[in-house]
Amino acid sequence: MIVCKERGICVENFNDSIQSLIEGAGWLAPALFIVIHLLRPLLFLPVIVVCIAGGVFFGFVEGAVLSFIGLSLMSFFFYKLVNIFPKFREGVARLKQKVFQDRRITVSQVMILRVMPFIHFHLLSLYLMEMTKTLKGYMYYSALGVILPAVLYTAFGQAITEFSWYAAGLFMIILLVVYAFLGRIHQMNIESSNG
After folding, report:
1. b/e map of 99-138 (b: 16 or more CB within 10 Å)?
2. C-alpha distance across the termini of the chain, in Å
3. Domain ranges for the chain
């Protein structure tokens, strides 16, 4: 058990040990990170969490490149899964109907929505599939659409590593308050539409 006399020293030791683990894993660490992107939907991890982790563990440039590769591969596998399993496609289509009703959106709007952390990643992938009709077109727009989230979220992850422990804690508290506030607004909207 580690006992810390000063919190700053413990946080530095923790960051150093994580960095040592990543450096010690060698070529396996980036490959595992890409696999985490592929398993992300099964682990119920949001895109933003995995991309931020890339910024924390690999730094901005390498984390952004790895997140781009992982998100692009995830888009490819989603395309294949939706075409192999029609029930899966029907489930995502039902979600699309609930969230967007009959609204039509453009490819550029999908790319902008990809940056928003609370919009379902595969829901937007379904929109791209319906707009492009071919795997080549889908992958082109999908790859373009994951550049911005990969860069922004990874940069955010890199920035977090440079916060002091109390600044990081304060930031997390602010995010939790905003999250609770948005949940409350959503609940009020549901109650007003039902009432």
Report:
1. eeeeeeeebeebbebbeeeeebbbbbbbbbbeebeeeeeb
2. 54
3. 8-162, 167-195
Residues in contact with 150: Cβ distance below 8 Å, sequence separation at least 6, in sequence order:
51, 64, 67, 68, 71
The string of DSSP codes covering the chain is ----SSHHHHHHHHHHHHHHHHHHHTTHHHHHHHHHHHHTTTTT--HHHHHHHHHHHH-HHHHHHHHHHHHHHHHHHHHHHHHH-HHHHHHHHHHHHHHHTT----HHHHHHHHHSTTS-HHHHHHHHHHHH-SHHHHHHHHHHHHHHHHHHHHHHHHHHHTS-HHHHHHHHHHHHHHHHHHHHHHHHHHHHHH-
- The per-residue pLDDT for range 11-70, each reduced to its tens digit, is 455 446 556 666 677 778 899 899 999 998 888 888 888 898 888 889 899 999 999 999
- pLDDT one-digit tens code per residue, 68-125: 999 999 999 999 999 999 999 999 889 888 887 877 778 888 888 888 877 788 888 9
pTM of the entire predicted model: 0.72
